[in-house]
Amino acid sequence: MRANASWRPARSRPWPVVALAALALCSWAPPGAAAGGGAAECAPEIAPDTDEGVNRLLTLVRETRVAGGGEAEVDRLLAEVACLTPVGAPRESESVPPADGVAVTPPEVYSIGEVDGRQRWLALTEWRWHDIPEHPMRGEQAVATWFDARVRPVLQVLHHSGATDAFPNVSREDAADVNGNGVGFLIDPERNAEDMNVALGSTALIFEAEGCTALTARGAFAHTWNDTGIDALSVTATGVGYEWTAPVDRALTVSGPTEVTVCP
Predict the structure, then answer these.
(1) Which residues belong to the signal peptide in this entry (predicted)?
(2) Per residue in 230-258, pLDDT tens?
(3) How far apart are the C-alpha atoms of 100 and 88, rounded to whole Å?
(4) What topology is assigned to 90-264 in CATH?
């Protein structure tokens, strides 16, 4: 199935959906993921509903803070060891204004076939700058796709390029964060007077459902300029948390929602 068809960049598409679908039908699995078989529910290493568990979690959080970890590291730690997801976390889009000149498509969700008896899905989010920002860009930019329900990620890919041949297409799989709620990438910007290496691009997340689930998907482009950047990000069910290096010279464009039901 296909959900929420939308515009494509006028320049050549970063990669065909067919190629990604073929890749997804391989039995590849990311490090730490179970190959084949069904997706297991999160099993906490530390029980958060006991005195001992709470004390262990507080100790880990304190150690993370002492080591210089921010909110993204704490969220990631609690998700990994105790299956905890922030509830009611503030949405960045409510406090950070949207970026002028960039459009982000609502994610398109495709059904792409079965592997070991389980359906695989592709969530494709695209962005395009209509105008090149005039200000210097010395800090990281970020792109993300997230779901309000948990899925099992299988493969994530980022493509980005300039609008001209000055910045050829780059393909990466090294996400800043990937988990059951989605994926996010950080990008070091490069630019000249007329173009930049993040002028357009796409992210793809191939995933399996943990059960027949109605989910809402959204995408975002986080833009920084001058000396502001992004040190880390954390993808959750309520959105993406960013560790901005400064509270100024930043913007966040969030796509509209895509609502779709996915099944194993």
Answers:
(1) 1-34
(2) 999 999 998 999 999 999 999 999 999 99
(3) 27
(4) Immunoglobulin-like (2.60.40)
